[in-house]
Design the sequence.
């Protein structure tokens, strides 16, 4: 059974930094591209970033480019999102998701990031 | 960026009746590999989104056959043949032919 468990979400001040983690199990982690998707409170879904199976390719939404860094450790079956220069508009539930034939086939339960002074 | 536009934004359906949601993309989602990169998700209350339909019309593992997808190019439809109480939530279409991947605004489905 595919399991994705996010962690690291907390309340942080504007301008602060945070690192989210996603622990994966139930599949061969290093075979798959992985993603981060976020959802602001009461709002829709926004794709944030992806990383290829080997970490060689990364892509970002314009809204986070230059501030967020996606990475992975295949030896630990883990995905990460380093978030710097956080803004109030980054407040959201952050999901990690497993790629599957161009889709987001499996999602974690999410971890909540609140940016507030 | 490709803009995904869903209609309607909300839907109230009597159990057992059909429902239909439209999704239009600002660019064709047909790739040169022959695939069309259009997906449907359902986010039930308090849960993460779950994949329903991939590549326009293919049901994901475990998805009931009352859900069907159709369309081509830039116009797509999700149909529920007979709505059940467990189908309530917000439905999103998504494109992955071009980065950034983008979602529709969501259609909230409730039961009358």
Sequence:
């Amino acid at each position: 059974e595919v399991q994705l468990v996010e962690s690291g979400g907390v309340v942080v001040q504007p301008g602060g930094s945070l690192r989210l983690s996603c622990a994966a199990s139930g599949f061969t982690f290093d075979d798959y591209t992985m993603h981060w998707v976020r959802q602001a409170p009461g709002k829709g879904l926004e794709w944030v970033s992806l990383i290829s199976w080997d970490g060689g390719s990364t892509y970002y939404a314009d809204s986070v480019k230059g501030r967020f860094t996606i990475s992975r450790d295949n030896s630990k079956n883990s995905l990460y999102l380093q978030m710097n220069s956080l803004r109030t508009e980054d407040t959201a539930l952050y999901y990690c998701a497993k790629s599957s034939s161009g889709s987001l086939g499996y999602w974690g339960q999410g971890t909540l990031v609140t940016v507030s002074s | 960026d490709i803009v995904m536009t869903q209609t309607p934004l909300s839907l109230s359906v009597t159990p057992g009746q059909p429902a239909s949601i439209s999704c239009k993309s600002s660019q064709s989602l047909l790739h040169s590999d022959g695939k069309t990169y259009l997906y449907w998700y359902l986010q039930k209350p308090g849960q993460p989104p779950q994949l329903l339909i991939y590549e326009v019309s293919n049901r994901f593992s475990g998805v009931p056959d009352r859900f069907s997808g159709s369309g081509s190019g830039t116009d797509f439809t999700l149909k529920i043949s007979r709505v059940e109480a467990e189908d309530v939530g917000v439905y999103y279409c998504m494109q992955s032919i071009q980065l950034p991947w983008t979602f529709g605004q969501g259609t909230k489905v409730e039961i009358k």
User: Anything to note?
Assistant: Chain A has no helices and eleven strands. The first strand of chain A starts at residue 3 and ends at 7. Chain A has a mean pLDDT of 97. Chain A touches chain B at residues 35, 44-47, 50, 59, 61-62, 95, 100-110 (CB under 8 Å).
